[in-house]
Write a structure and sequence with these properties.
Layout (H helix, E strand, L loop, with lengths): L3 E8 L3 E3 L15 H8 L8 E5 H11 L10 H12 L1 E5 L11 E4 L3 H9 L7 E4 L2 H9 L5 E7 L7 E2 L9 E8 L5 E7 L5
Parallel strand pairs: 1-6, 1-7, 3-4, 3-6, 4-5
Antiparallel strand pairs: 2-8, 7-10, 9-10
Amino acid sequence: MRKIIMMNRVSIDGYFASLNEATFGMDWFVQDPEVDKFLHSDGRSDSKTLLLGEITYVGFERAWVPMLTDPNTPPPLKAVAEELTNMKKVVFSTKLKESDWANTEFHDGNLVEVVKKLKNHDDNEGILIMGSGTIVQQLANAGLIDEYMFIMTPVVAGKGKPLFKDVEQFSLKLLETKSFDSGNVVLRYETVKKEQ
């Protein structure tokens, strides 16, 4: 069975994005190449499939696709753009139906059923969720997320989009922590499965 990993930057007060649509909610993020390097070491975030909601997908497409052909794109960013392009992108949207971005498929509903089918493959390829708060919330309530990786950003956002809005209580077991000079802290947890 495939493992689903949620990876999101979060503010100290629990928001995963600001309300600023122009920046796709990323204006308070404290970027740090050392964090990115750490996340890609030892396969922590190596996944072949990416689950995205509509807003996150549109932001990713606008940000990353142009970098594929822009000669001025720095090599590390171009590498990320290529990695995202090569991943299978499973997008949940009632509005979007098609895209020119390679390896993208759309679903207009049945999130839990689609994700259960994805999980039930015999391979060990991970499934990653980034951004996509409503997807995180629904899959958390369905008990389908296996790991949570938080990049805790040294900011009290004050307002924004809460990551766990309307999510029922569940427990986590700490797997790993790593702090950085930038003030970012990576926290990795696995979900404690409820006994049947």
